[in-house]
Amino acid sequence: MTTPLTLLGCYTTDGAPGLRSARLRADGALEPLDALETESPSCVVWHPTLPIAYATNETLAGGVTAVAVDGDGKMRELGTATTGAAPCHAAVTADARWLLTADYVGGTVTLVALGPDGCPTATADALQLQGTGPHRERQDAAHPHMVAKDVAGEALLCVDLGTDRLTSLTVSEAGRLQEGRWWQVPAGTGPRQVVAHPRGGTTSALVVGELSATLLHVRLGASGEAEVVAEVPTSASRETTFPAQLTTTADGAYAIVSNRGPDTLSVFDLGTPSLDRVAEVAAGARWPRHFALTGDHLLVAGERSGTVASYGLGGPAVIGPPAGRFSTPSPTWIAVR
After folding, report:
1. Backbone phi, psi, residue 237, to 5°
2. CA 312, CA 329: separation in Å to the nearest integer?
3. Which pLDDT tens digit goes with each residue over 26-82?
């Protein structure tokens, strides 16, 4: 028995093809299937219903590439659309009419129209974000890092590392992208990702701060300051830490954060008000930029080791023993269908 298809997005500075498809075998090993040349597909997301994936081309020119993927993992480019500079994250709306990208260098969120067949038809709109933060080098301007879906009652929420802000977004019928309410997290947090807090109530969210190296439980009420319920370091290591990926387990019991620097994965108990860190294990890969939970396994993309490590998932420690390792240049994203 095999798991659904997995796509690996990789930086292409070394001439690698960029996008790879694979299957995760029952023993935890990744079986390579196909490769497709596309420039630095650093984030990959699936269409809600069609066998199509979208890869952000994280370059200064900026773009997103739509890819058809058949049942055997064979990939074929369907089309492209332009975005702002260095798109690092994407999200497809629930009705599959729109794709949004967070353009880190451009300081924009781009709206791309999708046809009924899933192909991009036009770059419909772009929203320029404004502001700065206290970190001189990393918060010199707006740097959106994620467009999250269905968090704390908001259908779309932009996470801006540069301004320490979470901003609600709406898309009009005419294809106009608009800012709604916004919430400020503590200065210098450098928020990178946000997810719903599965046990914290309808207005609760979990935020990982790349610059503060902390995990925060916040409540998003009226616009203004986000109420911080709890904030804890993402790692026990004394090494400089840059947390990256934030995910909750399927049962809502735990949050898992990847820590670049100490190269670990930390597990937090969401049943405790103080977000107790109950485990921290070696990621098995250098600079763990992204990871994915799939069935009984956890896959970790090590950007600087050129490997994807797999672990068993479940049991008292949540993350089990190593199960396999797969080599691919500069992996940055793992998208499981």
Report:
1. -70, 150
2. 23
3. 888 899 999 999 999 999 999 999 999 999 999 999 999 999 999 999 999 999 999
* Residue keyed to tokens 């704390």: 152
Whether residue 283 contacts residue 266, with contact meaning beta carbons closer than 8 Å, is answered with no
DSSP 21-42: EEEEETTS-EEEEEEEE-S-EE
Q: Alpha helices, DSSP H only, in the chain?
A: none
Angle, alpha carbons 326-304-43 (nearest 5°): 75
CA–CA gap between residue 12 and residue 124 (Å, rounded): 28
Closest Cα to residue 154, out of 166, 165, 146?
166
Q: How far is 2 from 76, CA to CA, in rounded Å?
A: 22
Q: Which residue has the tokens 């999250």?
A: 148
- 305 neighbors 298 (Cβ within 8 angstroms): no
Amino acid identity, position 199: R
- CA nearest neighbour of 178 among 113, 114, 129, 139: 129
Which amino acid is residue 314, in one-letter code?
G
pLDDT digits (tens, 9 = 90+) for 201-241: 999 999 999 999 999 999 999 878 999 999 999 999 999 99
From the centroid of its chain, how far is CA 5?
A: 18
Residue 253 carries which side chain, given as an amino acid letter? A
Q: pLDDT band at 3, cuts 50/70/90?
A: low
Alpha-carbon span 200 to 194, nearest angstrom: 14
CA 6 to chain CA centroid, nearest Å? 15
Question: By the 8 A CB rule, do 10 and 331 touch?
Answer: yes
The letter for the amino acid at 2 is T
Distances (CA, A) of 279 to 22, 215, 269: 29, 14, 9
How far is the C-alpha of 125 from the C-alpha of 45, rounded, in Å? 20
Contact between residue 171 and residue 224 where contact means Cβ atoms under 8 Å apart = no
Torsion angle (degrees, nearest 10) of CA 29, 33, 37, 38: -60
Q: How far apart are CA 24 and CA 266, in angstroms?
A: 23
